[in-house]
Amino acid sequence: MSRLGGAFWFALVVAAGMTNFLVKQNVQSLDDQLTQVRKKTIEDQKKIHDLAADWTFLTQPELLADLNNRYVHLEPMSPRQMVSGLDGIPMRPATPLEDVAPPMAAAPPPAPAAAPATTIASAAPPTAASAPAQPLSLISTAHAATMPAPAPAAPPAVAVAPPRPQQPAPAAPPASLDGIFAQVTGSR
Amino acid sequence: MLSAQRLDDNPCRPRHFKPPPCAPVVADPVVAQLLESTRTRLLLALSCFALIFLVVVGRMVDVVELGGDRLDPHAARARLVAPPPPLRADIVDRNGTLLATNLDSPALYVDSKEMLQSGENPDEAAQRIAKAMPNLSLGEIRGKLASGRSFTYLKRSLTPDQEFAVNNLGIPGIEFSAAERRIYPLGDLVAHTVGYCNIDNIGEAGIERGLNKTIRGATEPVALSIDARVQFVLKDELQHVVDQFGARGAAGIIMNVNTGEIVAMASLPDFDPNHPPTTNPKRETDDDKARIFNKITSGEYELGSVFKIFNTAMALDSGVSTMSSVYDARNDIQVDRFTISDYHGKHSWLSVPEIFAYSSNIGSARMAMAAGGERQRTFLSRLGLLSPVPTIQFSPEEVGRPHFPSVWRPINVMTIAFGHGIAVTPLHMITATAAMVNGGILRPPTMLKVPEGEQVPGVRVISPKTSEQMRKLFRLVVEDGTAKQAEAQGYVVGGKTGTAEKNEHGHYEEKKLVSSFMGAFPINNPQYAIFTLVDEPHGNKESHGYATAGWTVVPATSRIIERIAPLLGVAPQDENAPEIKNALQIESLVGKKLEYH
Asked: Which residues are registered as beta bridge partners of B107?
């Protein structure tokens, strides 16, 4: 019995020793790996840092200006090339009403698409609301709804609603890009 | 033995379990003695082992739980996560462009003792090193190699190529020591702003010096308010002015009027902070001094007519004058031995806007006299024009102290009205002017980036109404006055020119001018102020021989604004739109045509 117990304890000690050894070995190799990775990371970070400095050096405005003068000849943007805000972007040229009206009359847009357009438009610019003719108002509202901001001089609105109010109180422009997207997608 | 007896006596004892054949009988005292001593020895050995184990356990607890010895190599290895922080933090511009950073650049030193012990021939070694590094003198190297000292620098700040070459020689006793070197990738572009460091990584000028402690302690980059692109445009155009008019130098500064952030700051001539001119006073040449000198923060100038901005604002804000007040500018004013006269003489009564637009010295002097010296002094002091600019991130030695008369006599009142007899730095000028146009709030200038949307506190120095009047006057000068060429299409520029003669050795030099322009745009809702100055320009054919502000810095400012406004996100507007025209129209001038020539 005592011999058996001795063997058991011996086996246990050997097993524990082995496990201990293996685990330790494993940890050590993992530790080494970790160190390697960390060293590499630091090396790479240093390289990135050096390259960042290099990049700044190579993209310094003076050098770029010189290269530009030699090869591409770009010029500073002139104020005429810029529009301030979305209201400055002109709408696509309006299609003449005669061309648009018949197909619209023949096949009116499906109700689900038209309904949100009108509701949004009625809440938006006064030009659309004051449009006189009923069938035309549908078109104008559709246009107006796609319009990001009430541009009093925008072609479609002018074409459809000639009796513009004396002082077209501009409706609040969409507060953000999201608002504009909501309007545009809502009208489709 | 006791237990054996008990076993025997037990009636329930299992039958197969035999008692020990014989109870140990210990009768021999010698044996007993032996056993006893063995037990003691065992106990002794046991406690020894126990003690050792306790020590081991204690150490383990120490290492695992308490952190253990910091110098333990394994522990150090485990903590090696990030590279060691640089000696100095990076400096970046408002868009994150690197303005200053540290790069590894080892130093080369010789351990002469080791070299001599190893049997290396110093002469031969010196020749090989000199071959690898041609800019070291052979004699010097040889001396250092044979010195017998254990540490002598051969060269600091090696390039990677040099390091490789020397390493390849494989000479014993030649060693590298790790070191970092401050480099400025943009070179001279931001020289005066960022400044530079000495070889021991201590800031010597600019932000490097002013914020030396912060930069040494920080791990994150220090973000400046400077925009490198705007800086380039400013410097480029100023350089153009210097070349065009053969000037001694030029300076320019651009400030966000609503936050006090300095977006660009240039002073010409400048230097490359990677190779700063020597700062050794003994070897410093005049040229070095001129290059290192920062005209914006340290240069004190009698700026001339641009000072009429403050004179007019004072008169309007205090209620002494209104926009329709008129002053007698028919004749020169004689005070003691001085004569105050007009450059563009009109010889008539002039209203406040006319005085401003024609830049009448006589009219300005009369306005100042009407307001009085005490009021003038208080007003200028409130604008910070009589003390060094506070809170700016430069070393106090680099911030100029204004010069002004200690006794404020009537003649001083008159000359200060048009910017003579008082010398301030361009930084003063732009800081105070920003308050004139931004609605009347004076904010301290800053070189550090202000987070977007943050409100910068300031002090109210003039009423919003006065500020609005000042904006109209600024616009008038560009539309009908001395700064017509400042117009930058779409950006509604406003401003005031100033051409002052330099005061040298107590008298004004007619040929040595300081021409400057103080502008702001878009003037109907100012966002940026710009001050440009050219030092001793000479008229040329294109400027019809003039070296005044209107012909030198004013056109340059126009070009600068055209180029930087898109970079700064200033939306162009139609300056002829009725709402802008009306907003900037001066009521008292409606129907009048200013005749300026």
From this structure: B177
Task: Tell me how far apart the alpha carbons of residues B196 and B290 are, in angstroms, rounded to a whole number.
Answer: 16
Cβ-count burial of B413 within 10 angstroms (0-12 exposed, 13-18 middle, 19+ buried)?
A: buried
Would you say residue A106 has pLDDT above 80? no
**Alpha-carbon span A9 to A11, nearest angstrom:** 5
CA distance A54 to B98: 10
The Cα–Cα gap between B104 and B474 comes to 51
CA A104 from chain centre, in angstroms, equals 34
| CA distances to B199, B204, B206, B278, B355 from B282, in Å | 18, 17, 22, 9, 50
A18, A33, B290, B370, B502 from B375: Cα distances, Å: 93, 76, 37, 10, 27
Q: How far is A71 from chain B (nearest CA, A)?
A: 19
Interface test with B, best of A24, A38, A44, A56 (most B CBs within 10 A): A56
**Is the bond preceding residue B444 a cis peptide, omega within 30 degrees?**
no
Q: In angstroms, what is the C-alpha Rg of chain A?
A: 37
* Nearest chain A CA: its distance from B571 CA (Å): 6
Tokens encoding A148: 């990001």
The terminus-to-terminus CA distance of chain B in angstroms comes to: 135
Tokens of A178: 């999201």
B474 closest CA partner among B462, B492, B460, B489 = B492
Q: Per residue, what are the HEC states of B298-318?
A: CCCECCHHHHHHHHHHHHHHC
* CA B22 – CA B33 distance, rounded (Å): 21
DSSP-assigned states of every residue in B346-410: --EEEEHHHHHHHT-HHHHHHHHHHH-HHHHHHHHHHTTTTSPPTT-SS-GGGS---B--SS--H
Residue B434 Cα, gap to closest chain A Cα (Å): 24
One-letter identity of residue B566: P
Q: Which are the catalytic amino acids of B? A: 305
Q: Which helix (H) or strand (E) covers residue B503, if one does?
A: strand B494-504
Residue B541 identity: K
**A chain contacts of residue B569, beta-carbon cutoff 8 Å:** none
Both structure tokens of B578 = 């009725």
Calpha distance B398→A85 (Å, rounded): 43
Token digits for B509? 């030099």
For the record, the structure tokens of A8 come out as 């058991």
Q: Over pLDDT 70: what percentage of chain A?
A: 47
Q: Which of A41-45, A74-78, B167-171 has the lowest mean pLDDT?
A: A74-78
CATH architecture type of domain B91-223: Alpha-Beta Complex (3.90)
Q: Which two tokens stand for residue B331?
A: 């004749």
d(CA A2, CA B537): 110
> B230-272+288-589: which CATH topology?
Beta-lactamase (3.40.710)
User: Which of the residues B16, B72, B74, B77 would you substitute to probe the A interface, choosing the one with the greatest number of A C-beta atoms within 10 Å?
Assistant: B77
Interchain CB distance below 8 Å, A35 and B77: yes
Q: If interface means Cβ-Cβ distance under 8 Å, which residues of chain B face chain A?
A: 74, 77-78, 80-83, 97-98, 101, 103-104, 183, 185-187, 189, 228-229, 231-233, 236, 489-491, 562-563, 565-566, 571-573
Domain regions of chain B by residue span: 1-81, 91-223, 230-272+288-589
ipTM: 0.71
Inter-chain contact B186–A85, Cβ cutoff 8 Å?
no
Render pLDDT for B527-576 as a digit per residue (tens, 0 to 9).
Answer: 999 999 999 898 888 888 888 888 889 999 999 999 999 889 888 888 88
